[in-house]
Input
Amino acid sequence: MTVFILIAAAMVAVAVAWVLVPLLARRVRAGPAPEAANLAILRDQLTELEADLARGTLSNDRYEQARMELERRVLEETRSEPAPANPPRPARAWTVAVLAAAIPIGAVALYIVIGTPAALSPDPGPQHELTREKVEAMVAGLAARLEKEPDDPEGWTILARS
Output
């Protein structure tokens, strides 16, 4: 019984850890910031515009319009406030607390509904203990019955074994 409870508790602890560790871990943003990536894209677009102008595939008027549009977009990108690296998440603490309580409670409730809680009880129930006196009384009863009905070969076989 104790071994079962220890194994069940260890399994619940592993399940809780499996769920809560990712929630508690700090998320590190990989790669460049989105603003820097957007500015790099705009620089690439300006380089392409200059290359198109040099090849003659783009007129000066069209080049000036596209360049002004790119400059406007660069200004918009630099004016916007950068997003914080790790935004505060007040709901995270509540989520962790609720899950830390709900998983063990759910496991115990599920065991009570589906499992066999009576198997944990130390009382094995009524004992059918055979004592020497009980065996001798049963053999005497069988011998008395066989005196009245001597035609029972199965009874004689059991009496012989006894």
Summary: The chain has six helices and no strands. The chain has a mean pLDDT of 83.
